[in-house]
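re: that chain from earlier
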Amino acid sequence: MTPTTQETMNTLPQQLLFDLPLRHARLQQAMANANADALLVTLNNNLIYTTGTVIRGWFYLPLNGTPLIFYRRPLDLPQRLPGFTTIQISRPDQITAALQDHNHPLPSRLLLEGDELPASEWFQFARIFTTTELLNGSTPIRLARAVKTPYELTLLRESCRRHAAVVATFPSLYRPGMSDLDLSIAMENASRQAGSLGLMRAFGGRMEIFMGSVLCGDNADTPAPYDFALGGAGLNPTIPIGPNNTPLRSGTTIMADVSGNFTGYISDCSRTYAIGSIPDHVREAHQLSIAICHAVAQAGTPGTNCESLYNLAIDLATQAGLAQHFMGYSQQVKFIGHGLGIEINELPVIAARFTMTLEENMTIALEPKFVFPGIGAVGIENTYVVTPDGMEKLTICDESLITLTP
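^ sequence. v structure.
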C-alpha cells in the first residue's frame, strides 16, 4: 500500500529510525551499570533522545529486549515510528497491565528521571509499581547521552555549519547608535531567518535561556544567578540574563553569544567585536582565548580528565597575568566548557573537580572568556566533537576581534 502524503510527512527520517536502537543500547548499558532492569522516561528532552520527537506519553526500555512506547498524543505516532511497539493509553496506571499483556515482567529496579521529574509523578509511579524499587536515573541517562550516535553527530554538524554561517553575518548587522538590545534583536532575527528553531532547551529546573546573550561593556560583568560563564542583567529581574538596553559606545566590546538550534541539536558559538579603539592588553586577552581553545582542543583526546583540561586553561590565563579577568571579573565561574546536544548544558563539564574522562564522539563547547571593567568581555566560544586526535572544531567562522565603526 502506498502511504498517503500526510503519512509520508509525519514519518520520522529513516536515518533516525536506524539510529534509535543505538541510543537504546547505550541506555541499556547505563542501566546495567546502575544495576537496574528497566527505564521509564516522560520528559521532553529524553523522549526526543529515545523516540526522535516530543510525545505526550512514556518510553519504557527493559534491560534486555525492545522498548514499548505508551502514548496519549499524537494519534499518528504509530505511523511516525514504524517498527516500534506503540501502545495508546490514557493514564499512567495502565502501564503495568500493558507490560504484562506484552509479556514484559514488572521490573524490580526501575530508573526514573529523578532530578527533573515532579515529585507528584514520582509518587504516582510508586503507587503504580508497588513491588518495584524506584531509582534516580538522571545521571545514567545523561552519561549515555553524552556520547553522540552517528545521526546525532550528523544533526549537530549541520546545526554548527548553519550557525557559523549566520554568525559570520553579525558584524554587518551593527549600526552606530544601536543599543545592545537592538543588536540582539537583529542577530536573533537573522538566526530565525536562517532557520533557527528558536528554542534552546536546558537541563535543570533552575536553568532558563533564550536564544543567547549580547553583552556590551560592563553589562558583561553583571553577576548571573544561572550557571553561565557570563550573564548580563537582562531587561527585567524575572529574566536576569542578556542585554539591558545599554547604548553601544566607542571603547567597549560586544560579545555575541547567540546559540544555534537548526536541527533539534544545539550548537554554541560566541564572537566578540570592538567598537572603535580598545586597549592592546584587551586585544591580547582575546588572542589568548583563541590560544586556550586551541590548546584545550589539542589536548582533549579520549581518556583525558576534564579537570586537567580546565587546569590547562587556568595555567595559561595565570601565566599571562590575566587570572583575575578569566571567566568573569566580579563573579568568576569555575568551568571553561560544557557538553551540548539536545540541551545546551549536557555532560561532560570542563571544570574544577570534575574528573569525568572524555570519550570519542562527545560534543563540547569551549568558552574561555575574559572580562575587563569599563570595557567588556572578549574571547570566543566554539563547538567541538572529541576524536582520537583531539577535539575537532565544528563552528568555523572568523574568530578575530573585529572592529566596528562608532
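The longest strand covers residues 56-62.
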